[in-house]
Amino acid sequence: MQQKPNEGAEPDSISNYFLFDYISSLTAADYAIKLDSIKQGESNDFFTLRMAYTKTSDYSPCGSDIGDSLKQVVILIDSLRFEKALSILKNIQNYDFVNIKSDLY
């Protein structure tokens, strides 16, 4: 008799199967919906946001390359050009909202 994947598993393993299924079921559309919900202040579910982001075409497992943009932000802040720095940060958040590095400024 063959065992089902969850049958006989430890409770933590069962939770992991459910979590894997949940993450697998997310789509790029879920990211857009969750992002809008978070921006509207209706949700704080950043876990789902980040996992759904992995389903978008903007996602890269190695991370996005915003290093040059952030260097430019630092230079602009140092030269007191805050509006231009803010404009660049908003642009980063438009295509990579989940990138925590842009939140540091």
Please, could you describe this protein's structure?
It contains 5 helices and no strands. The protein has 105 residues and is mainly α. The protein folds into 2 domains: 10-59, no CATH class; 62-105, no CATH class. α4 (67-78) runs antiparallel to α5 (82-95). The longest helix has 15 residues, at 11-25. The N and C termini lie far apart (58 Å).
Which key phrases capture this entry?
5 helices; single chain; 2 domains; elongated; 105 residues; mainly alpha
What about the largest sheet?
Answer: none
Structural class: mainly alpha
Order of helices and strands: HHHHH
Task: List low-confidence stretches.
Answer: none
Mean pLDDT: 83
What is this entry, summarized?
The protein is 58% helix and 0% strand. The protein is mostly helical and 105 residues long.
